[in-house]
Amino acid sequence: RNRGGDEAVGWQRSDRVVGHTRPSASAPSRLANMLVHVRWGKEDMQVELDPEQPPSTFKDLLFQRCGVQPQRQKLLVKGKTVQDEDDWSRFHVRDGSKIMLMGTVDQVPEEPTEKQVFLEDLPEEERDPNVVAKKYTVGLENLGNTCYMNSTVQCLFSVPELKEALREFQAQQEDGTTPTGAKKLTSATKTLFEDLTNSLKPVSPFHFLMVLRQKYPQFAQQGQGGTYMQQDAEECWSQLVFSLRESFEGGGKNRMEDLFGIGTRTYLTCEESGETMQQESMNYTLKCNISGQTNHLHEGIELALQEDRESNSAKLERLALFKGSAKITKLPPYLTVQMVRFFYKVDVQQKAKILRRVSFPILLDLYSFCDTGLQEDLKAPRQRKKEKDDEASGVGVKEKQDVPTEAKEGDDTVIEDVQPASSSAPPKQHTGFYELQAVLTHKGRSADSGHYVSWVRQADGSWIEYDDDVPIPVKEEDILRLSGGGDWHMAYLLLYKSVMA
Question: Which one is catalytic: 296, 298, 442, 451?
Answer without folding.
Answer: 451
